[in-house]
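Anyone up for a design puzzle?
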């Protein structure tokens, strides 16, 4: 298997597990991952937020870690990457206001490259206009956005993932084992024991 080059779009208050776990897991299996944030450069950090499910009507939020970026957003070109990963948390709600971010999502989709989005990551997919006629899972509160963007919201268990074509989506971080396995399958990554 040839190592793949993956772009990870992050921003302040990205969900802690949804950025840390995929970043480290993809590196662990030999892929190259560039974690970038608009208006920031390699070595700078974004703040993370820890979202948990503790019995209330929605998730709770606690301060997370500082996550170090390892590439400059200004140098990113979609054609240089094999796949795109979009973590959730609060970052997607403001990243979707950035025209360059939306253009990147559109370019990956137009090229048919694998795109993995979890939780609120679907907000970027919706804002980029790539969900029309497609199935997409997301955090349930983002379901209306998927529908308004012309997509079909897939209401699945929080620990499951959904794949349609080049798109692999999941409701939240409890889905990491299934979501990352599905993403690795789209990348052609084979892990043998």
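Challenge accepted. My sequence:
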């Amino acid at each position: 298997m040839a190592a793949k080059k993956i772009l990870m779009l992050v921003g302040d208050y990205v969900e802690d597990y949804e950025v840390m776990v995929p970043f480290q897991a993809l590196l662990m299996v030999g892929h190259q991952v560039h974690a970038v944030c608009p208006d920031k450069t390699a070595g700078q950090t974004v703040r993370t937020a820890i979202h948990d499910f503790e019995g209330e009507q929605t998730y709770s939020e606690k301060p997370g870690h500082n996550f170090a970026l390892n590439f400059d957003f200004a140098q990113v070109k979609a054609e240089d990457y094999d796949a795109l990963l979009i973590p959730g948390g609060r970052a997607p709600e403001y990243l979707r206001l950035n025209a360059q971010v939306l253009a990147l999502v559109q370019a990956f989709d137009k090229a048919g490259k694998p795109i993995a989005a979890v939780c609120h990551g679907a907000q970027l997919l919706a804002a980029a206009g790539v969900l029309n006629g497609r199935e997409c899972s997301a955090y349930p509160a983002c379901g209306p956005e998927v529908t308004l963007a012309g997509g079909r919201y897939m209401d699945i268990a929080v620990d499951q993932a959904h794949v349609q074509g080049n798109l692999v989506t999941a409701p939240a971080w409890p889905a990491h084992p299934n979501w990352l396995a599905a993403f690795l399958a789209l990348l052609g990554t084979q892990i043998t024991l």
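A detail worth pointing out: Helices lie at 16-28, 91-95, 99-110, 122-127, 143-148, 176-187.
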